[in-house]
Amino acid sequence: WQxxxxxxxxxxxxxxxxxxxxxxxxxxxxxxxxxxxLVARRVRHFTCRAGCSMEFxxxxxxxxxxxxxxxxxxxxxxxxVTHDEQLGRVLRxxxxxxxxxxxxxxxxxxxxxxxxxxALTMADGTLxxxxxxxxxxxxxxxxxxxxxxxxxxxxxxxxxxxxxxxFVGLCCQDLWTTAARWADFDWFEYAADR
Length: 194
Prior knowledge:
Number of helices: 0
Radius of gyration: 16 Å
Helix content: under 10%
Shape: globular
Largest sheet: 8 strands, antiparallel
Distance between the termini: 23 Å
Low-confidence stretches: none
Order of helices and strands: EEEEEEEEEEEEEEE
Strand content: over 45%
């Protein structure tokens, strides 16, 4: 696991606050160059998948947590849970393309679902998010949002500076309160697909 510019410390990334879970305490936005709550692992395969199980109870649209495919603060894809004033807890997809932010889908209401499974697959230069629910030990996956251009997470694509390569990971933001909201992640997996 790697963090962005700062060491991983218990005050924002804890395995003891809720034993058996990774708790990320929300901090600054994914566009911040300072105090992010982001832990990620390097993408090492052209064809791969990653996923996580999470619980998060946002009270404001400035509170978010989820699964991210990240190159730098200007280039990322972020499937996240947040709050919508009309719909309550929702799933949103944020895309930052050379510092131009867009949301290529309408928010999806989560209703009473507390535990959420998020996933992504990368293959043939594309990236696709999905969400699912476990039934009888198997996950029933549903695609979320459009097919995205995974080459955006490459050294050749980024504008100005690049050498880190792509990452996938977990993150949490709280842009609303000083007593930050947290997200609990039960598991994360990354695997190469052949």
